[in-house]
């Protein structure tokens, strides 16, 4: 049943017509519980409250299906405005971006121009840009572009997905970088991605351990309490200082656990999405865990 739910919502996440219509709906279907606002101004209060509770933030301006140059330029300008907004409001936060949103499927040169400009602005503000990994169709291209960017910038991070077979190899390839480890939220073929949940969990822990032992900053993005406990134990047993890693969770999920990790003295960052293009993100959250479907229906009923 879980697999049926997952495949169904992943299928819906790629429906361009529904994505287009969702922009007219506003934050319905319970999305307002997991998306901070339609605009960055809407998001200010939630961002400030997170910082006040001891949580750092990574901010994501949502968007997908960018195939026109005009859309890519608009997305780039929104990201630049977000960097200015973060600085002006003194928010402890960095920006997460998707290369496809910056024009990767339009023109690679345009995308590189955009991401370089963002990295320059972030450098001025003494912050970083984190590149979100997308579906496998963009995987190798993203890593190749990252190799180019690393020659000129050190204020850049990347996301690696634990279900990708080459995960440990890619972790070693990116030694010294800030890496955010996630399980993975796209539907991928067995030839490139692990399909069994238990094996994905094991692979993620192996990737995290590899990066920690490589003395590289590690972000563990998971709601899985068992994985969190294993990472804590590994760090303690191997003398990994707490300033070399952080835990991350999504905005709107497991708030009690987030606060407890802060209370226990761990570095913690909440992944906060905002924007009118919330639909694909929300569908993937429903796909990840069956409990999230009930969560969405509660959101609808409370409207």
TrEMBL record:
<keyword id="KW-0642">Proline metabolism</keyword>
<feature type="domain" description="Proline dehydrogenase">
    <location>
        <begin position="46"/>
        <end position="295"/>
    </location>
</feature>
<dbReference type="Pfam" id="PF01619">
    <property type="entry name" value="Pro_dh"/>
</dbReference>
<comment type="pathway">
    <text>Amino-acid degradation; L-proline degradation into L-glutamate; L-glutamate from L-proline: step 1/2.</text>
</comment>
<dbReference type="InterPro" id="IPR002872">
    <property type="entry name" value="Proline_DH_dom"/>
</dbReference>
<keyword id="KW-0274">FAD</keyword>
<keyword id="KW-0560">Oxidoreductase</keyword>
<dbReference type="GO" id="GO:0016491">
    <property type="term" value="F:oxidoreductase activity"/>
</dbReference>
<keyword id="KW-0547">Nucleotide-binding</keyword>
<protein>
    <recommendedName>
        <fullName>proline dehydrogenase</fullName>
        <ecNumber>1.5.5.2</ecNumber>
    </recommendedName>
</protein>
<dbReference type="InterPro" id="IPR008219">
    <property type="entry name" value="PRODH_bac_arc"/>
</dbReference>
<dbReference type="InterPro" id="IPR029041">
    <property type="entry name" value="FAD-linked_oxidoreductase-like"/>
</dbReference>
<keyword id="KW-0285">Flavoprotein</keyword>
<dbReference type="InterPro" id="IPR015659">
    <property type="entry name" value="Proline_oxidase"/>
</dbReference>
């Amino acid at each position: 049943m879980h697999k049926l739910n997952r495949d169904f919502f992943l299928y819906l996440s790629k429906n361009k017509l529904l994505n287009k219509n969702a922009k007219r709906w506003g934050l319905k279907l319970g999305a307002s519980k997991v998306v901070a606002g339609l605009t960055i101004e809407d998001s200010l209060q939630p961002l400030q409250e997170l910082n006040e509770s001891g949580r750092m933030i990574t901010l994501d301006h949502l968007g997908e299906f960018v195939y026109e140059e005009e859309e890519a330029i608009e997305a780039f300008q929104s990201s630049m405005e977000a960097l200015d907004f973060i600085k002006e409001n003194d928010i402890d936060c960095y920006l997460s971006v998707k290369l496809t949103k910056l024009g990767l499927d339009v023109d690679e040169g345009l995308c590189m121009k955009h991401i370089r400009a963002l990295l320059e602005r972030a450098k001025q503000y003494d912050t970083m840009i984190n590149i979100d990994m997308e579906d496998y169709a963009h995987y190798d291209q993203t890593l190749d572009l990252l190799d180019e960017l690393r020659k000129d910038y050190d204020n850049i991070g990347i996301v690696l997905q634990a279900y990708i077979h080459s995960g440990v190899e890619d972790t070693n390839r990116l030694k010294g970088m800030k890496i955010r480890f996630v399980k993975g939220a796209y539907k991928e073929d067995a030839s490139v991605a692990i399909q069994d949940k238990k094996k994905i969990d094991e692979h993620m822990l192996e990737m995290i351990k590899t990066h920690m032992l490589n003395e590289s900053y590690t972000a563990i993005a998971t709601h899985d309490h068992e994985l969190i406990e294993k990472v804590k134990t590994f760090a303690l047993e191997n003398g990994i200082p707490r300033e070399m890693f952080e835990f991350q969770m999504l905005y709107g999920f497991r708030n009690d656990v987030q606060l407890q990790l802060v209370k226990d003295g761990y570095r913690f960052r909440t992944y906060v999405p905002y924007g009118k293009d919330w639909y694909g993100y929300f569908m993937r959250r429903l796909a990840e865990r069956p409990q999230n479907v009930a969560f969405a229906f509660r959101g609808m009923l409370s409207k």
